[in-house]
Amino acid sequence: RAKKLRGNNSKFYSYNQGEGSIDPLELEMELGKAIDQDQLFLHYQPKINLNTGKIVGVEALIRWEHPEWGLIPPGTFIPIAEETGLIIPIGEWALNVACKQNKIWQERGFKTVVSVNLSAIQFNQPNLIDTIEAVLQKTGLEPHFLEVEITESMTADIESTILMLQHLKKIGVRISIDDFGTGFSSLSYLKYFPVDTLKIDQSFVRKLHNNPNDETIIKAIISMAHNLNLKVVAEGIETKEQLVFLQHHLCDEGQGFFLSKPLLANDLEQKRSRIEQIVEDNGIPGDLNQ
Ligand code: C2E
Ligand code: MG
Ligand code: MG
Ligand code: MG
């Protein structure tokens, strides 16, 4: 894991603060060294069952801590990794670390599913299946404890998307569609996609109590998903009101800063029981989903 550099280091400046703009070419060169120099690490954000309050999954979110530039958000470096092809080794690194961590959790009795985000370039690699199988083999993680998150706009070609999803299903990993509602996927194809879960994009959740249209969209996504026998996860829950609304409308799982920020593996383990108390303390009591 990257060394802790945040804090009192006066030379250290944050990429986000924009002091000294970084040349994209330099960023690209540095990114090329990030794996070997141990600058990448993963945060894990829990997914909570909104009925029981328990942690039922964790999403791995990549972080890059550059020794001079500080923490660079994935929204900044993932697009560069995609343009340069570095997403292939970086994506494989993330898969491997996430599976290794989850194997450790399994052995300690924390039976959780780890979700790893895939970029379109990874998804369209013919050897993606081989890569995933090799990682599962190497780490000893059972396939159903791994989930991949893909987005709606992974490929223009529906046929090859369905084929790849079928291959993934066959090796036993779970599949979820991330940022659902923001892409351009044709709803009519959804029933042909062998996926397990839809994740409602956080933009709908964020505006819930300001925009009645977003309430309608969320209710529609939940009922459509359930009719297709899919699980629904809401992303970006930041308030108690959003939590209660989603519980009331029988959303299965939730993720968001109100429940937990993305955390280092050890911190997540330490805070586990506190996190699992939040729904009980703030949500609708009882077993709505029964
Ligand atoms: P995503 O997969 O949709 O992940 C959710 C993002 O929302 C994460 O941002 C997370 O930290 C943030 N988030 C979670 N809860 C809340 C909340 O309550 N409020 C707000 N405002 N934000 C919340 P992050 O970690 O910056 O990641 C951004 C995106 O970068 C991810 O979106 C994903 O598309 C991509 N990404 C992250 N890790 C990887 C990776 O290993 N591989 C690939 N290909 N992409 C990754
Ligand atoms: Mg995701
Ligand atoms: Mg998302
Ligand atoms: Mg996103």
Strand segment tally = 9
Q: What is the percent of helical residues?
A: 40-55%
Low-confidence stretches: 1-14
Strand content: 15-25%
SSE topology string: HEEEHHEHHEHEHEHHEHEHH
What best-fitting shape do the alpha-carbon axes yield? globular
Could you describe the largest sheet, including whether it forms a barrel?
8 strands, mixed, barrel
Q: Tell me the number of helical segments per DSSP (H or I, 4 or more residues long).
A: 12
Average pLDDT: 90
In this entry the ligands are: ligand C2E, magnesium ion
- In spatial order, strands of the major sheet run 1-2-4-5-6-7-8-9
Radius of gyration: 19 Å
Structural class: alpha/beta
Distance between the termini: 42 Å
Organism: Peribacillus asahii
Domain EAL: 24-276
Protein name: histidine kinase
Structure description:
There is one protein chain. This protein has 290 residues and is of the alpha/beta class. The protein has 12 helices and 9 strands. An 8-stranded mixed barrel has the order 1-2-4-5-6-7-8-9, surrounded by 4 helices. The longest helix is centred in the middle third of the chain and has 21 residues, at 87-107. It is globular and about 50 Å long. The termini are far apart. The model is unreliable at 1-14 (pLDDT under 50). Bound molecules: ligand C2E and magnesium ion (3 copies). Residues 24-276 form the EAL domain.
